[in-house]
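Protocol step 4 of 5: obtain the predicted structure for the target chain.
Materials: sequence only (see below). No template structures provided, no constraints applied. The aim of this step is simply to have a reference model before the mutagenesis design in step 5. Sequence pasted as it appears in the construct record:
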Amino acid sequence: MQIVPQYIDIEDKIAGPLTWKHLGWFFGGGGLVIFAFSVLDRMTFYFVAIPIIGLTVALAFYRPNGVSLSEFIGYGFGFLFHPKVYTWEREIQKTNKKRKKEEMKISTTSEVEKVSIGDIEALAQTLDSGGRERNEKIQELIKKQANKK
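Step 4 output (structure tokens):
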């Protein structure tokens, strides 16, 4: 009996509840904050650092529709920049099912015609010739069917 691995879609926890992806986003966001602190003056730093920290936390933890925010943003850019393909589908017309059932009942009560072996052979000959040769029996069968309708 083979052992089937379970929970393969759950990432390993590294530091408490944090995974490698979380730590990567935090190190990247922290690096940007440190760079902004070393380059910008104090007031501008606060205006830049707060959105960077918010974006870092959102990228690490926020999951819209069960997808990480980075993938979600990637899907958004893909939608914006890839060509759109518009397809047309024919509208489905609703039919009355009760009416079909009534028609089926009527057709089942009619008498069943018996087909002779000669009729089947004539039909087979016509089909084999691709419709070029038509037997008299086939012509009679077609006329009978046309008269019934």
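Step 4 remarks: The radius of gyration is 37 Å. Residues 20-81 form one domain.
Proceed to step 5.
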